[in-house]
Amino acid sequence: MNETRHRVTLTVNGVLREATVPGRRLLSDCLRHDLGLTGTHVGCEHGVCGACTVLLDGEPVRSCLTFAVTVDGHEITTVEGLARDGELSPVQRAFAECHALQCGFCTPGFLCTVTAFLRDNPAPTEEEALEAVAGNLCRCTGYQNILKAVHRAAELQTELRAERQAELRAERQAELRAERQAERQAELRAEEDR
User: Fold this and answer.
1) Residues 6+ apart with CB under 8 A from 107
2) Which of 48, 81, 114 is at the close of a domain?
3) Which of 39, 45, 129, 186 makes the best surface tag, with the fewest CB within 10 Å?
4) Cα 79 from Cα 27, distance rounded (Å)
5) Mind listing the pLDDT tens digit for each residue in 26-50?
6) Cα separation of 166 and 96, whole Å?
7) Residue 84: DSSP 8-state
8) What's the CA angle centered on 78, arms 95 and 11, to 5 degrees?
9) Alpha carbons 170 and 172: distance in angstroms, whole number
10) Which portions of the sequence form the region Disordered (predicted)?
11) What is the pLDDT, as a whole number, of residue 109?
C-alpha cells in the first residue's frame, strides 16, 4: 500500500529546505534521513530522553514526537545551527570548557535545551538550571559538569553582550566624529566662499 507523501518546506538552521515525506514521518527522521542533518540524535523514541531535542521557532521540542508535516513552514534549529560563522556558540563553548560531555550522545539535545533556556533566563539560579536540564537524560556525566556548563554559558553570553555593546558604542562614537568632521569641513568651505 502506497502512503501519501507530503511536501514540507522548513527553514532549517537559516536555510530554506524542502522534503517530500510520508504523513507519519517524524521530524527527527526527516532531519536525519531526508535532510542529512545527523546531529539530532534519536534515543528512546518516546520523548523521554531528550536526545532528539531541537528548537522549533526557538522553543525546544522533542523531534521524535513531532510529525514533520506539522511543522511545515516553521523554523527549526538543530545542533548544527547553533554555531555562527564557524564560531561555537557560548553554550557549545561552555560544554567543551566544562567537560560537560562524555559519550556525546545526549549532548545535541542538551545544547538545544540550554540555548533556549538561557535566552529566556540569562542568569539562572542553581535550582533553575537543574530544572532546565532535568528533562534530558545523560547516562555518563552525573550532570555536575552539565550544570557548571549552564552557568559558564550564562557568563559567556553576558561577556559577549558586553563586548557587542562596547563595539556598538565605539561605532556610534566614530560615526559622530565623522559627522562632526564633515560639518566642520562644510563650515570651513562656507567661510572660504564668503
Assistant:
1) 79, 95, 100, 101
2) 81
3) 186
4) 14
5) 999 999 999 999 999 999 999 999 9
6) 26
7) B
8) 150
9) 5
10) 171-194
11) 97
What whole-number distance in Å separates Cα of residue 149 and Cα of residue 183? 50
Q: What does pTM read for this prediction?
A: 0.84
Same domain flag for 6 and 67: yes
Query: How far, in Å, CA of 65 to CA of 42, rounded?
Result: 11
Which H helix or E strand runs over 9? strand 5-12
Q: Are strands 75-77 and 53-56 parallel, antiparallel or unpaired?
A: antiparallel
What range does the domain containing 1 cover?
A: 1-81
Q: Which of 35, 52, 81 is the last residue of a domain?
A: 81
Contact 108, 51 (CB under 8 A): yes
Query: What is the C-alpha separation between 93 and 156, in angstroms, rounded?
Result: 8
Q: In whole angstroms, give the CA distance from residue 13 to residue 8.
A: 15
